[in-house]
Design a protein that fits this description.
Length: about 800
């Protein structure tokens, strides 16, 4: 997520943003942009369909005010969304919450983090945690809200940059221990983005310590921790040099992660400035993925994995599309150009009224719906479709299909000043857009599917008045909250069913009726076509069939039975509120055939008089026909998993193939290692350590991309036991500043290999330095006038530890 006070004088001329779906933009008057990205929508979110999505927002609340960043004019209100249950949590730099701000309604003193009702958009006043600075990223794990940003305290407790909160009470979840710090740096530590994958939490931003009390692990601008406890995963450690990480995208199919930001390089690898692809297993660099569009070290703000495509959003007004397997060029979108060279996304700058802006938001809302945002106005060019489009007054966002062609959806956000910073989709299929929007929305807008009018509205005279009935809308969007019945232009009642009786009518009087279907979270909906009827003399009361019961053969039939009603000509059977069959009088059952196994059906029965009028429907009864059938064959866990080793550095994993699987996932020590095609029955895992014991599991992947349970854990030791500790390092310590000591040492020697070094201060463990991170440790923040004694020990992969060095004494002035 984006944060205030971020300007990097040494290596970044911009502000930075990150978001777990947040995005950020800067004024169009400035060429530099700061942005963020977020993976996607809430768990269980309804599919987003741009063809029926409203372009007008209807909110029950909003946010106003903002803390100032170090760059004048940068005050971004909303940077992150995350849904948990019926609550949408909103994070950013805002200082207050309002209820319908355009109506001059109530204002609440709630800064940086707030909760809103998913269905209505109303502010939840009972949820009031307190933070002292901005929130840039939100995500969740097992119902716990994970919060990242630039804050130093939460609920009055010191908690820098990272915290877990209870989504019901707002209290700190004490079992999650991780926070961050920037030891020895003048820059404010911050978390720009959080992303949960399984039970792991990726944390990226601007920090040099992952704090896990009492340990302060050296982690440079990224870390992977346990999502429930915050415990550091030491096996993953990409080293980011000279600049913050703004965002990341996890490519599970290729077991790799895309890091984007304003950094110079990752793991000192070439062509990794601002974009780097690293392995999911250990954070090492994946070669063959070049840096920015034209090789420049320009800032990159977001990435989206879309099957075999990577969409990369970044500076210099580009949104580029790359082949995920080989980085080949597939196309681009750019703002502010008259025309574009499709081979490299360069062209003639338009200037003037055609000014553009950097692409900074990236998200996937459904299988074929991607959304991107920029602080752009004027003209943009799409090299795939060849379209040139005016973006003025369109909120700075566009939706695309996976193939690069645009959806025709333009949210009505004409009064934006800096544009969108955050986007997500909720479980109603609504899209939430946030930023520093003002005018018709304040801070964020909520755009939901449009509900079509009800169908086939009919009116007839019944025993209790005029009886109305109608069919459900053809597109129900987020669900129908209620139906409003309108007579002669005035609402006379509401109902949740699809029928209504108007008992306040006068004989020989003509009335005109219509019905409005109001979707969940909205205050109004679309009106049906009207129907006109002249009331007659009410008929005698007329009974509804009683004791309606349902039974099924669990394959394709439902039998409906009911008590008969006197003086009728027959009965009308309704399934899912649609007429199915007329059954003549004297019958009290009906068999409904040709149904789908696993589906749930709702039934009602109505009686019909001799004059053709109908009774009220019986209460709705539901039944499921057999067990759910997902259309896939039975799907099992790979059996007979076997392990063998060459005794040096390899383990071969074998298994029996599963019918109809499309591939297999191999896990080592409960971490994903590799994906194998359906034809595979074995995998060779190399680069292992002698004397180390490894645990393996195999999972099958089904055609619908779901996974089988893992196979039982199998263990194997590679080679003989390693019981020999490494040699003792030769070390030295000296003052590197008034309150800072630097410890250096020569690499230790081991019969298998040294994996890291343990630093002790005053005979207490202080830090662990992986061998890959070098042979230097800086201990900052020392007390003046104090003697410190350091020792270094080497450790190998089997856990053997060398004797400590002699005492290395440093005296601070």
């Amino acid at each position: 997520m984006m944060f205030s006070r971020l300007l990097r004088s040494a290596w970044s001329p911009l502000l930075a943003v990150a978001a777990v779906l947040a995005v950020l933009v800067v004024p169009t008057s400035r060429p530099d942009a700061v942005a963020a990205a977020e993976p996607v929508s809430a768990v269980g979110a309804a599919p987003v369909n741009p063809e029926v999505l409203s372009e007008i927002s209807e909110n029950g609340g909003g946010v106003i005010g903002a803390v100032e960043s170090s760059v004048p004019g940068q005050s971004w209100r909303v940077h992150a969304f995350e849904q948990i249950g019926d609550r949408m949590f909103v994070g950013g730099a805002f200082t207050d919450v309002t209820a319908r701000p355009w109506d001059g309604a109530q204002q609440f003193d709630q800064a940086f983090l707030a909760a809103f009702d998913v269905d209505t958009g109303n502010f939840i006043q009972s949820w009031r945690p307190t933070l002292d600075d901005a929130v840039w990223s939100l995500t969740s794990h097992n119902g716990t809200l994970l919060v990242g940003g630039e804050f130093d305290t939460v609920n009055g407790t010191a908690r820098e940059g990272l915290v877990a909160l209870d989504p019901q009470s707002g209290a700190i979840v004490s079992s999650f221990v991780a926070s961050i710090a920037n030891d020895g740096s003048g820059f404010e530590a911050s978390v720009r983005e959080l992303e949960v994958v399984g039970d792991q939490l990726y944390v990226v931003g601007d920090f040099n310590r992952l704090v896990e009390p009492p340990f302060r692990h050296g982690r440079f601008r990224n870390a992977r921790v346990d999502a429930a406890t915050g415990k550091l995963d030491k096996s993953w450690n990409p080293v980011v040099q000279q600049g913050p990480v703004f965002s990341l995208a996890v490519d599970e199919a290729r077991s790799q992660i895309i890091l984007v930001g304003s950094f110079a390089s990752v793991n000192s690898s070439p062509n990794t400035g601002s974009i780097a692809v690293v392995r999911e297993s250990d954070g090492s660099t994946v070669s063959g993925y070049p840096a920015q569009l034209n090789g420049d070290w320009d800032d990159t703000y977001a990435a989206v994995v879309d099957g075999n495509r990577y969409w990369i959003a970044g500076e210099q007004h580009y949104l580029q599309i790359r082949n995920a397997n080989n980085w080949n060029w597939l196309g681009c979108v750019a703002t502010g150009f008259r025309s574009l060279n499709e081979t490299n996304c360069t062209g003639s700058w338009r200037g003037g009224d055609g000014f553009g802006g950097d692409y900074q938001v990236a998200a996937r809302l459904a299988d074929d719906v991607l959304i991107f945002g920029c602080h752009c106005r004027g003209v943009y060019y799409n090299s795939i479709s060849g379209n040139t489009t005016d973006l003025d007054d369109r909120g700075g966002v566009r939706m695309y299909r996976s193939n690069g062609f645009e959806w025709d959806w333009f949210p009505e956000l004409r009064f934006w000043t800096e544009g969108p910073y955050a986007v997500t989709a909720d479980t109603n299929g609504c899209v939430w857009l946030g930023g520093d929007y003002t005018g018709n929305v304040d801070g964020f807008g909520r755009f939901c599917p449009i509900v079509s009018p009800v169908g086939d509205l009919t009116a007839q005279m019944g025993g209790n008045g005029i009886e109305l009935s109608w069919d459900q809308p053809t597109q129900t969007g987020p669900g129908i909250a209620r139906y409003e019945v309108v007579r002669d232009g005035t609402t006379i009642g509401t109902t949740n069913s699809r029928s209504f009786v108007d008992g306040s009518v006068s004989p020989n009087t003509t009335y005109t009726y219509s019905v409005v279907a109001v979707p969940s979270g909205a205050s109004s909906g679309q009106d049906s076509a009207p129907v006109t009827i002249t009331a007659g003399t009410p008929l005698p009361p007329f009974g509804t069939p009683g004791n309606v019961t349902l039974s099924t053969n669990d394959v394709d039939q439902v039998t409906i039975e009911w008590d008969q009603v006197a003086d009728v000509r027959g009965y009308l059977i309704h399934r899912d509120f649609q007429f199915v069959r007329f059954v003549p009088a004297g019958t009290s059952s009906f068999v409904d055939s040709g149904l789908t196994r696993g589906e749930t059906y709702r039934y009602q029965v109505r009686a019909q008089r001799q004059d053709g009028t109908n009774s009220s429907p019986s209460p709705t009864q539901s039944i499921q026909v057999g067990e759910v059938d997902d259309g896939l064959p039975p799907f099992g866990t790979p059996a007979n998993v076997t392990l063998s080793s060459n005794g040096v550095d390899e383990v071969t994993v074998g298994w029996e193939r599963v019918s109809d699987a499309i591939g297999y996932l191999v896990h080592r020590d409960f971490q994903f290692v590799a994906f194998l095609p359906a034809s595979a029955g074995s995998y060779v895992d190399d680069g292992l350590v002698q004397g180390q014991t490894y645990r393996y599991q195999v999972r099958a992947q089904a055609q619908d991309r779901s996974y089988s349970p893992p196979s039982p854990t199998q263990s194997i030791r590679v080679g003989a036991d390693d019981n020999t500790p490494p040699s003792t390092p030769v070390a030295a310590a000296s003052l590197s500043g008034p309150t800072e000591a630097t410890v250096t040492w020569d690499p230790a020697v081991d019969d298998v290999g040294v994996t890291g070094y343990l630093i002790h201060r005053n005979w207490q463990f202080l830090a662990y330095v992986p061998a890959a991170n070098g042979t230097t440790f800086v201990d900052a923040g020392l007390d003046p006038g104090t003697r410190y004694r350091y020792q270094v020990r080497a450790q190998d992969a089997a856990g053997n530890i060398s004797p400590p060095t002699g005492l290395l004494v440093v005296n601070t002035p």
